Amino acid sequence: MSFSTANLPPPSILIVGAGVFGLSTLHTLLSSKRYKSTHLTIIDTLPIPINDTESKTKFHVPTASLDSSRIIRADYAHPAYAALAAEAQQLWRQGWGGVKKDRYSECGLVLTAYDDGEEGEKYMENSLQNVTDLNADAAGSETTSKKHETRLAIEELSSHSALVSAMRGTHGASGSKGYINHLSGWADAEGAIKDVKAHTLELGTKRGNFSWRSGKVVRLLFSEPLSSSPPDGSNHAGRSVVGAALSDGTCLYAELTILATGAWTSALLDLRGRVQATGQVLAYTQLTVSEAQRLKDMPVLLNMSTGMFILPPTPKGMLKVARHGFGYKNMVEVPNPEASSTFVGDNDGEEGMEKNGKEEEAASAPTTPSSTMSISLPAPDFHTLPPEALATCTAFLREMVPWLSCFSPSPPASTYPPSSPFTTTRLCWYTDTPTGDFLITYHPSFPPPNNSSSSLPSSLLLATGGSGHAYNRVSGGEIEARLSGTVGMAAWG
Predict the structure, then answer these.
(1) Partner of 241 at 20 to 30 A CA spacing, among 102, 105, 172, 374?
(2) Residue 447: cis peptide before it, omega within 30 degrees of 0
(3) What is the pLDDT of residues 308-338, one digit of tens each?
């Protein structure tokens, strides 16, 4: 594919954040000859080395990317998302980005709902139609021997007893009807991130013109205002984003900054009404060896009416239940980063380098920034679940696997809290958008630098708003497509 002058890559790109969006984008850029002359820098708060100390972060950071497991599915009510996720599943099967193949398990997904005519049931029915169509298309391109196998991948489950039977060993289920897609499953979330990180570092070391930094970004850096009265009435005044400042005083500069900072994005840019950090409920129970063996063949279950889901035990016997919903907010008053921004002249640093409710998510951002703003950010204590959440997770686990020893009169002493069936709990901080669509787009208010050689439409590209399903996607290629201007899903910008 040829590119116009307007689409020429910039001489330097700074990626802020090494979660799913940031890391997969860096991997894509390092793998592309198109960016061979672009200096690529990524900055993240977590350490660079891939070693055992990093693995201890599994339950000690609120980052969404680091967890015991994430669902990998093509089961979406929106046809475009279903198709994109089905493409991503092929990459998971092939071990994309250096991911070890045993990180991904295609154990099946039971998608359920209650027969109540509400949104959850409609989602399940639309998802069933989409994956059925996708598998029919796949069957048409397979050999005759493969067609029968592919068409059996989807099985409708019209009763609660059918759901229980499909769960293979749990003796429980949630919902009144649904289906099982044998081609969906789950991934070792932290393990896959570590694999991609190691492979990305290998690519960067081999390629050169690349740096990986550890540190905390505290603000974006802007050029001097180009005008005193911007036409949109905002405080941007035609400023360009020229990089980011770290907590230790270091400044990193680049012609294009990609903001992939997940739940911390709102602290760096005023995106009220567009994205919001929400704490989503996770709870884990350590199984005995015999319990894990009984559940080794179980599929994932996701109830679209309640948002509750359960994943099979990990190789170390950790069973996880969770809830995907509106989540919880942690409202804090912070300086408005666009009202009191740091202006910089010539670069003299390093070059290139509350329970939430739906009605509150769509609140409009003010057109003129004040000096402070009230936003939701990840809470310092992300292990303690609200009583309502703990009770809901406990009831769901009992509904799904009633025979677990943690429900016996004398449960294991290692549960936390002591009265619960869980070994540990936490809030996983998502970055939600009002529609659940990703926010992958150039920011229209920050033009490229005056001396730009690439003629990009903006100096800031947003890659955020994962809304709890970004891990399911291999997003780097899609972010690069938006970067280059070659393609882009309309809902993402």
Answers:
(1) 374
(2) no
(3) 999 999 999 999 999 999 899 999 999 998 8
